[in-house]
């Protein structure tokens, strides 16, 4: 089966490339800040390029950089690549969206990862994961190495090795490329749920609501992969069940996830997010049979990346903290999650990364 997919961005979506726009590339001017297009600046201003070759240290300091532009009589406004709205602190860096040849896109691997997670949340396999996790928790093993190995084996026990996993049948292409001008820069606020306020500001390039991207999804025939007989004999009766009612089960996983998110934000009295999830729930209930919702990308939170569909108990968070080490140093077992990352649009909080996918047979 081959489908064309159409992604519609519902809330600001960030897929990080790992690169950053350095602070000296950002010029503050009054209440605004601008990202300078260095490639174009160097290409068009030979004097500047020669100056940088002789004095590369000017690129390490915003004031030196600005003074150099003034000395060379270069107006930075002719080389603005993007605008950052709102207040931005000094020495701030901006995380870059993934691009190819300067054009943003959504990698197939990011989309496939999100499909895999929400599909598992919506099927019997979610229960299998939780049973095995709970068994490990109650086994009270002391050796952390043994526990880490056993946790990794949960996925192996459910779906087998990657080369034999049924998800090998699922092939998702990269989306088409958009233009650089389709990106904006978001102020991502780390909102502390106990303090009821923003405790940290992050900045990242993002695709805004309303952007549309396209690509293809293919589910290969099971018969092409003879090695999967191994899974059939050793694991579950038929792992292909994961692809039955593909769209319906993804949306069931999303439904369970939204219910849990609503529980958290209602408990904390975060009205903006409660209204958002009520709206998203209405949208989910009114989708066509070929449409599903997903949350993907940066700053979407622990629960969006894992198979858990219920609020974790204190003892479960303690167990995760013990095996994840530094990665879980900020986990508070008695209050998890402690923070949520949001963006504000017109003064209203929104979670990041929600998209709607429409499939049509190719």
UniProtKB/TrEMBL annotation:
Keywords: Antiviral defense, RNA-binding. Residues 90-300 form the CRISPR type III-associated protein domain. It comes from the Bacteria. Coiled coil: none annotated. Pfam families: RAMPs (PF03787). This subunit might be involved in maturation of a crRNA intermediate to its mature form. NCBIfam families: cas_TM1807_csm5. Belongs to the CRISPR-associated Csm5 family. This is CRISPR system Cms protein Csm5.
């Amino acid at each position: 089966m081959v489908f064309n997919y159409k992604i519609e961005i519902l809330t600001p979506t960030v897929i990080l490339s790992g690169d950053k726009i350095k602070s000296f590339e950002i010029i503050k001017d009054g209440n605004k800040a601008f990202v300078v297009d260095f490639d174009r600046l160097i290409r068009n201003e030979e004097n500047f390029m020669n100056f940088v070759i002789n004095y590369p240290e000017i690129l390490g300091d915003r004031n030196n950089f600005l003074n150099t532009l003034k000395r060379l009589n270069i107006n930075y406004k002719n080389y603005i690549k993007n605008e950052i709205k709102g207040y931005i602190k000094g020495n701030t860096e901006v995380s870059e969206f993934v691009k190819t040849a300067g054009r943003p896109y959504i990698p197939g691997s990011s989309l496939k990862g999100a499909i895999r997670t929400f599909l598992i949340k919506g099927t019997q396999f979610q229960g299998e994961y939780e049973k095995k996790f709970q068994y490990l928790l109650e086994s009270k093993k002391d050796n952390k190495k043994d526990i880490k190995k056993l946790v990794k084996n949960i996925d192996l026990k459910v779906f087998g090795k990657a080369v034999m996993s049924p998800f090998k049948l699922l092939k998702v292409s990269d989306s088409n490329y958009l233009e650089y001008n389709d990106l904006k820069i978001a102020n991502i606020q780390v909102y502390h749920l106990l303090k009821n306020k923003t405790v940290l500001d992050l900045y990242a390039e993002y695709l805004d609501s309303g952007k549309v991207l396209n690509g293809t999804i293919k589910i290969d025939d099971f018969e092409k992969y003879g090695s999967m007989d191994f899974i059939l004999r050793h694991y579950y009766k038929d792992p292909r069940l994961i692809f039955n009612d593909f769209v319906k089960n993804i949306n069931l996983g999303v439904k369970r996830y939204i219910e849990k998110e609503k529980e958290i934000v209602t408990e904390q009295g975060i009205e903006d997010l409660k209204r958002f999830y009520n709206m998203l729930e209405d949208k989910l209930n009114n989708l066509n049979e070929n449409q599903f919702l997903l949350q993907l990308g940066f700053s979407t939170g622990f629960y969006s990346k894992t198979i858990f569909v219920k609020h974790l108990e204190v003892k479960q968070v303690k167990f995760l903290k013990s095996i994840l080490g530094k990665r879980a140093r900020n986990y508070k077992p008695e209050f998890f999650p402690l923070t949520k990352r949001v963006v504000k649009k017109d003064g209203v909080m929104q979670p990041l990364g929600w998209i709607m996918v429409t499939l049509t047979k190719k």
